[in-house]
Amino acid sequence: MGANLPLYLALLAGIIPWSTASSPPLNTRDDGAFSPPYYPAPNGGWLSDWASAYEKAQKVVSNMTLAEKVNLTTGTGMFMGPCAGQTGSALRFGIPNLCLHDSPLGIRNSDHNTAFPPGVTVGATFDKELMYQRGVELGEEARGKGVNVLLGPVVGPTFRKPRGGRGWEGFGADPSLQAIGGALTIQGMQSTGAIACLKHFIGNEQEMHRMSSVITQGYSSNIDDRTLHELYLWPFAEGVRAGTGSVMMAYNDVNRSACSQNSMLINGILKDELGFQGFVVTDWLAQIGGVSSALAGLDMSMPGDGSIPLLGDSYWGSELSRSILNGTVPVERLNDMVTRIVATWYQMGQDEDYPLPNFSSNTLDETGPLYPGALFSPSGVVNQYVNVQGNHNITAHAIARDAITLLKNENNTLPLSTTDSLKIFGTDAGPNSNGLNSCTDQGCDNGVLTMGWGSGTSRLPYLVTPQQAIANLSSSAEFYITDSFPSNLNPNASDIALVFINADSGENYITVENNPGDRTTADLYAWHNGDDLVKAAADVFSTVIVIVHTVGPILLENWIDLDPVKAVLIAHLPGQEAGYSLTDILFGSSSPSGHLPYTIPYKESDYPSSVGLLDQAFGQIQDDFTEGLYIDYRHFLKANITPRYPFGHGLSYTTFTYSTPSLTTVTDLDTAYPPARPSKGPTPSYSTAIPNPSEVAWPSSFSRIWRYLYPYLDNPQSVTNSSSSSYPYPSGYSTTPKPAPRAGGGAGGNPALWDVAFAVDVTITNSGNVSGRAVAQLYVELPTDTLGVDAPSRQLRQFEKTGILEPGESQTVVLNVTRKDVSIWDVEVQDWRVPVGREGVRFWVGESLGDLRGSCLVGGGCEGV
């Protein structure tokens, strides 16, 4: 989340509380929710892929003053620059104020940018090429606007809670889908020189009560070690392996320790086990302590403010300078913080002609205050209106089109003809009645739903609505852009009703129609009485087609089995290309090829009770992840509950046949555990002497901007080095490095985890009469008897989408399976373990979890289903 005026006003009003103190010591808790300490913070630079960047960074950092080092770790304050957040600079070395800015789907609060479909829509395409290309174009637009760090992609939350407000920002309700989507996005973004920021690390699965206040702490996501590794950490490990330059910490606690100062999460797992070489940054105002967060491995504070923003106070900034001078934060820790930031800057090539910000997220006016958060600010040109869209509308259109998921199509009702007599109902087909972008951060449900609301949004440069697109193709179409069904309508037998409904959600600093981010009021039903609109149409029309724009799972039971309801399309969240992407499918210029990235249940009670929203007035909410590995389809399989539509479901206008798959062993898994990890390479070394206090003295004749956060102290000579015994360090704090974790050794973990162990080949043939694309999905079934632990009976591990297949045309796809894909996390050994003998592992291949076409058994054979 980046800085914005609605957020700050909500903070002041008490709608969103702010933090004033760190959590009590965790070792006093005896209820089992405990995050063990892990100190000291591992230094970066030991992986060969980053060696050159770290070598360059070391040369710079070794010559920096204390003020310059602190400057790069601390934001300049909320509204103290053009971006959601910006660091201080080190101009002697050519390092400007680094711009960190939203969002994962486009440049937020800007102009002349593309509003791409969000992650959930991208996930529904199951198209790796589009995932990567969208990443490239996001990076190009970030670079074009002068954004150094684009705050995305999102791989947490992961739809653990179907009502959770921000699941739509990620790629779906499966860790492998999240991992593949996130990794490809990172690779695409960073190919342009922009730095990706993988978020939110970790366990942020609902919006309500995620932050701390003077009377309560943000909720604690209490997650066991195996669940953490196999489910929630899985996509972050892939993102680290993809080379993400930064990782954002979540607001909530994990196992009773705030993420921003959770040493086990940052030092132990992210930096040591996963070998993360970039820098760790807070979510906005998520920092709740200074020394504690530095020791726990945090590298950058955003937007830099302390517990109450816009007062000129910070946990770091001048206070970090003081902590270095008095010895409470080791110089070595600061050096690593800065080196990680500078090395990432070099790693992405931002030292070579990377643009400065040419826009302002604070205003669309050409001129304005340079530091809007200051009481008095110099003014100047803040918006240069640089158009970064290029031809990115092509990719945005392709994603929106190829994500559209056909749930039902009785009697081949779809596709339509442009000469059909069409009657269109629902405000979701039309424009925002108050005008394009009239709602801050898309914080309303008015007109076609293109994205959820919050910091993960973008202004729409334009919007082609379904109404406009249908009207352009069908001169006879009639439109009723209302959520109340007309009382005097008498359709002919040949008339076809298209009913548009939606379901919205977003971030908790905006409440929309009594939904504070999470879907508290609307439940999982359509908004604006959408179910009643469908039923009313079904009462008078013999053919009804329902188009649903939704942030996630939605209940359809009030009308799905009504006889007139012949076809249903889930159009997800289409971004700026809502209209023509839909008409491509409606009128048959393309066959639908989207698949559900989550399960649609018959009723909400089909989910485990532990994934409901939690709410209480006082005290810290303990969100116990007691369902373990069993979220979404994994739960439905275990509980033997049939969903309305299974994960991966998606029909086409054509049909596909699958050959019996074939299985090849690529790498013999001779041992239950991976080979020994590679040893760490060398890391930069610096003097550990405490700097001269004069390095953070205010420069002479310096003109201060009030509320701007600086690294300087009024009287630095008075700060004395204190004995470590006099400071109340966190429980378990030590300066003695821990042994390297056996599961580590490379980016994302032990490199052997990504050895391809098996290859499953299957030939897919278009057996229908029109062209189309198929998605081969591979699910792993592990032998729980030989593992000695329970495991989900099916786990998505790989997918491949075919090209456009003409009738009768075939394509063979290869689905590679890695060692990690067939492993479980051994909590005792702290490593990934494959089944003894590796036999008994079965691979299932099909069109969806509910339409499996064949399987292969390791040590056995392959067969069709």
From TrEMBL:
Species for this entry: Aspergillus niger
SMART domains attached to this UniProt entry: Fn3_like
Protein's UniProt name: beta-glucosidase
UniProt similarity note: Belongs to the glycosyl hydrolase 3 family.
Enzyme type, top EC level: hydrolase
Keywords in alphabetical order: Carbohydrate metabolism, Cellulose degradation, Glycoprotein, Glycosidase, Hydrolase, Polysaccharide degradation, Signal
Residue ranges, compositional bias (Low complexity): 720-737
The keyword Endoplasmic reticulum is annotated on this UniProt entry: no
Region (Disordered) location: 720-747
Positions of the Fibronectin type III-like domain: 774-849
Gene3D superfamilies to which the protein is assigned, alphabetical: Glycoside hydrolase family 3 C-terminal domain, Glycoside hydrolase, family 3, N-terminal domain, Immunoglobulins
Catalytic activity field: Hydrolysis of terminal, non-reducing beta-D-glucosyl residues with release of beta-D-glucose
EC id: 3.2.1.21
Single GO MF annotation: beta-glucosidase activity
